[in-house]
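Retro notes, structure queue

What went well: the backlog is down to a handful. What didn't: a couple of records were mislabeled last round, so from now on we paste the full input next to the output in the thread. Example, using Cytochrome b-c1 complex subunit 7 from Steinernema hermaphroditum:
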Amino acid sequence: MAPWDLVPAAAKGIKFAYDGKLVRMARYISWNYLWGGRQYGLQFHDQYFEPAPEVQEALRRLNLKEPWLFDQRKIRLSHAHTLALHGERLPKEKWTKWEDETWYLKPYLDEIEAEKKERANSSGIVPGYSLKQH
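Corresponding output:
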């Protein structure tokens, strides 16, 4: 069995829209060899940009439903920023491992996308988190 066929234990319930063998292989190779966040102890969704309205809403929901995951994210980001500021990286044995990846925002982002589609198909009303905040 190839390493990309292994689903991280923490992410067993995560379903991807495209999950063929080639896509899984590309996800694994990208995560392990192209993405540098793991050298700072980050998980993949830690890099999601907060000003995006969908990400803000997903983080708000994460904080309401699973505040410990939200706090862990903030701690990882704080440590990563401190390391980057000092031009350092974690020792290789402390890098985030593929087996530890959780894709913790995916359920919330999927839920938000489903709500947006449902609203577009029914009433066409734009959800509040999509409106520009002043």
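Agreed that this is the format going forward. Reviewer comment attached to the example: The CA atoms of residues 35 and 44 lie 9 Å apart.
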